[in-house]
């Protein structure tokens, strides 16, 4: 995976390898609630808030193991983010999605901390400027809350709109990063 040190973690366009059965997961408390973190042989496949829209549910065969190195590193980086000691992530991300979803997730990963962009700008950056609603739908399906910072995407007028983890969390994450409502730039 091509990593850039000054940007957020970038999702790779790949799918899980056939037969990958070693899926591990854990719960992790953070200042905004409990996160579920999931990984398999291809990388971190999901980071969601407990109960959020599109939350992951552990499946039969998954193993809960917070000591797994992939999960432990994700937790370490999230803790550094919430402690104000880091603003970007360097994690191997892997999830299923369409080519357009992956393009949207890569474009979201390029939005720097403290900045916001509109869904229209996101669609443009993902290569389909007329597909604003599709970009919003792909944003809603972002499997890596916080790490791929979909909270930095705002409405056309700069207002806070849609966030699978809830608008209160979106507002808190933007405040944590020094961006406020209406800061689209």
Order of SSEs: EEEEHHEHHEH
Percent strand equals 15-25%
Question: So what's the overall shape?
Answer: globular
For the sheet with most strands, the description reads:
4 strands, mixed
List the helices and strands and how they pair.
Layout: E1 24-30, E2 33-40, E3 43-49, E4 63-64, H1 69-82, H2 99-109, E5 117-118, H3 119-125, H4 132-140, E6 153-154, H5 167-176
Helix pairs in contact: 3-4
Structure commentary:
The protein is an alpha/beta fold. 28% of the residues lie in helices and 15% in strands. The chain has 5 helices and 6 strands. A hairpin with a 2-residue loop joins strand 1 (24-30) and strand 2 (33-40). The longest helix is centred in the middle third of the chain and has 14 residues, at 69-82. It is globular, with a radius of gyration of 15 Å.
Keywords for this entry:
185 residues; alpha/beta; 4-stranded mixed sheet; two-stranded parallel ribbon; 5 helices; 15% strand; disordered N terminus
Provide a compact summary of the structure.
This protein is α/β, with parallel strands linked by helices. Helices cover 28% and strands 15% of the residues. It starts with 23 loop residues before the first strand and ends in a 9-residue tail after the last helix.
